[in-house]
Amino acid sequence: MAQLALLLSDIAAVSLLVFGLYFPRHRRRDLVVAYLGVNVGVVAVAGSLSAGGADTGLGLGLALFGVLSIIRLRSTELDQHEVAYYFSALALGILGAVETDQVWRSVGLMALILVVLFVGDHPRLLRSYRRQLMVLDTALPEHTALVAHLEHTLGARVHSAVVQRVDLVNDTTVVDVRYRSRPGVRAEGDTASRTGTASAPGTAVAVRP
């Protein structure tokens, strides 16, 4: 009976995780399948090994899923919030499969995971702070000039600008910039796009948020 309660709790938790939190916020269908598959797979294997009384086998099974998750994460590009959802689905599966006499503790931990993701990935939390990998159509090897140029282009307060590459031949700079947008201030690119005018030399092109 306790194991059935954990299984039902896991089904409810992973459904809320995927269809209540992740997909409405990020709309990536392929990861919906990945999160559900990881969760169900962990529950199936860990639950089977745990029911058989094979403690060593259970540990080996969980270690195997850990290795497979690393391979999965290295096989495609995932954002950090997607990694968090991935391991949350994995953790929910483990909590739902491992037999315990304290069912409410496992259910409480499942709820804690959901609450943390709800708050930590909320669109309103630190929404003015952003990160972009940008390509500037001018070479700016001097850091102060680079930051000033980025703040003018983005209309934001730059907190960090890490130069990836400066090409003096093609006159370009690739920079990883982290900044805080300013309310009511438009970026240079936004102004140009709304007025229909061409952007001036030295503007930036964001290639990845």
General description of the model:
- 60% of the residues lie in helices and 17% in strands.
- Helix 1 packs antiparallel against helix 4 (80-97), helix 2 (29-51) runs parallel beside helix 4 (80-97) and helix 4 runs antiparallel to helix 5.
- Mean pLDDT is 81; it is low at 191-203 and 205-209.
- It has helices at residues 2-26, 29-51, 55-75, 80-97, 103-120, 143-154, 188-195, and strands at 129-136, 156-167, 172-181, 204-208.
- The protein starts with a helix and ends with a strand.
- By secondary structure, it is of the alpha+beta class.
- The chain has a four-stranded antiparallel beta sheet with strand order 2-3-1-4, covered by helices on one side.
Q: Structural class, judged by helices and strands?
A: alpha+beta
Q: Give the strand tally.
A: 4
Can you write the helix and strand succession as a string? Answer: HHHHHEHEEHE
Integer-rounded radius of gyration: 23 Å
Major sheet characteristics: 4 strands, antiparallel
Number of helices: 7
| Arithmetic mean of pLDDT | 81
N-to-C CA distance: 47 Å
Structural shape: elongated
